[in-house]
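Good morning,

Attaching, inline, the backbone tokens for the sequence recovery test we're adding to the shared suite. The designed sequence is right after.
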């Protein structure tokens, strides 16, 4: 009996192919819908182009060069961004590209940078499709460290649905230029605001591929981890000043609640935000339990709609920290998507094939989840949320109205199943909707 069982197992391994990012070839691209993907994960009707830009913010505070004698030196801050947009492909042009990224981080000798490449469904430098322009703008801000390519599955998907998506490679905060944390604490919000201004300027210009393409007055920010930390501040939640102790010093005062410059900087072009596991709500992960970079009153200053997503086992931002920030945002129409048994990596692409070491792999992986499945679920909910709040597609409201909070409690027979999810697929999730008070 034992020998027969072993033989059966051996035959199974020989017959069933193993599919991975490494051996799936041209048919595999991060973000492609799995057969069990929820309804709105499918790509839209637009072809997608992608182009890189270098932006320069003149006169930014150079926190890394600060001294006691000169605590606020200035420099011209470079920012590389990648832009995905509705495109009009020429004959023979294909909707495929290759993204080049890195594992590891520049500031850790034991984690050297390792290059890797992966395929994407976008045409490099394709001509824009101006038929329905201008398109709403989506600004994407990665974690620490990270890159502009961490969420290509979502960026391409949104561009195919009629958005211009710009992902920032935050200087001093990428895998290849990781620097002191104070720079990230100070620059996240400032980078997001600056990129919004630049996209508006480039769209208003008479030439360039972005000319006339961007509706910057109709903008959303998507932030993951430290990107979410910056996004919360960008939409109205002023910091309480605690972050000054981690490097920025008094320079961060311009982002603190109640500061006149901060109040004057609020940008009403930002109409919504998506917050993946935003950091800073509870600093227990760095030994400061119950400390927060915000006071409760600051979150009440957020008035734009927000979609939040987090794992209930998040050990970086801490689930309790994200939940607290969500609960404090009482004047925002808001939604909280919870991945049960998930850690912090509920936003990025799946691990690349080159991530063969544990430390490399865990930077992207979720032990209890299929990352491609998470990507599809994110595409579904972000599509519904942005479609409703940036495009006024009221029919998408139904996909944000769950008949039961916990997906496992839904039943197709009793019409309590989550909308948009095929039968037997809405599992391991919670969804909380809260209106403004």
């Amino acid at each position: 009996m034992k020998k027969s069982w072993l033989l059966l197992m051996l035959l199974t391994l020989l017959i069933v192919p193993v599919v991975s990012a490494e051996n799936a070839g041209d048919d595999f691209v991060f973000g492609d819908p799995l057969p069990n993907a929820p309804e709105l994960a499918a790509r839209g009707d637009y072809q997608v182009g992608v182009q890189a830009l270098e932006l320069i913010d003149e006169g930014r505070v150079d926190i890394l060069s600060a001294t006691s004698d000169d605590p606020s030196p200035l420099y011209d801050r470079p920012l590389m961004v990648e832009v995905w947009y509705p495109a009009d492909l020429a004959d023979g042009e294909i909707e495929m590209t290759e993204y080049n990224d890195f594992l590891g981080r520049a500031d850790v000798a034991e984690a050297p940078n390792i290059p890797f490449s992966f395929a994407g469904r976008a045409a490099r430098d394709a001509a824009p499709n101006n038929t329905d322009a201008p398109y709403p703008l989506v600004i994407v801000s990665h974690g620490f460290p990270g890159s502009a390519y961490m969420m290509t599955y979502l960026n391409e998907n949104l561009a195919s649905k009629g958005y211009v998506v710009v992902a920032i490679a935050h200087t001093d905060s990428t895998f290849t230029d990781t620097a002191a944390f104070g720079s990230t604490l100070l620059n996240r919000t400032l980078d997001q605001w600056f990129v919004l201004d630049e996209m508006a300027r480039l769209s208003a210009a008479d030439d360039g591929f972005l000319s006339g393409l961007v509706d910057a007055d109709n903008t959303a920010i998507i932030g993951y981890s430290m990107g979410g930390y910056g996004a919360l501040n960008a939409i109205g939640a002023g910091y309480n000043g605690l972050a000054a102790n981690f490097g920025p010093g008094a320079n961060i005062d311009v982002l603190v609640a109640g500061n006149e410059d901060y109040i004057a900087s609020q940008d009403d072009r930002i109409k919504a935000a998506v917050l993946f596991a935003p950091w800073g709500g509870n600093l227990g992960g760095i030994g400061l339990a119950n400390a927060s970079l915000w006071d409760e009153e600051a979150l009440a200053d957020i008035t734009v709609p927000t979609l939040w997503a987090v794992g209930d086992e998040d050990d970086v931002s801490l689930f309790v920290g994200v939940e607290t920030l969500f609960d404090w945002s009482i004047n925002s129409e808001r939604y909280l998507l919870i991945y049960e048994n998930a850690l912090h990596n509920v936003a990025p692409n799946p691990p690349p094939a080159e991530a063969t070491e544990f430390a490399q792999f865990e930077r992207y992986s979720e032990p209890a989840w299929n990352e491609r499945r998470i990507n599809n679920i994110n595409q579904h909910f972000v599509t519904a949320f942005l479609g409703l709040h940036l495009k006024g597609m009221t029919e998408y409201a139904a996909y944000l109205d769950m008949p039961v909070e916990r997906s496992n409690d839904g039943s197709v027979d009793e019409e309590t199943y989550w909308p948009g999810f095929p039968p037997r697929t809405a599992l391991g999730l919670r969804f909380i909707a809260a209106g403004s008070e």
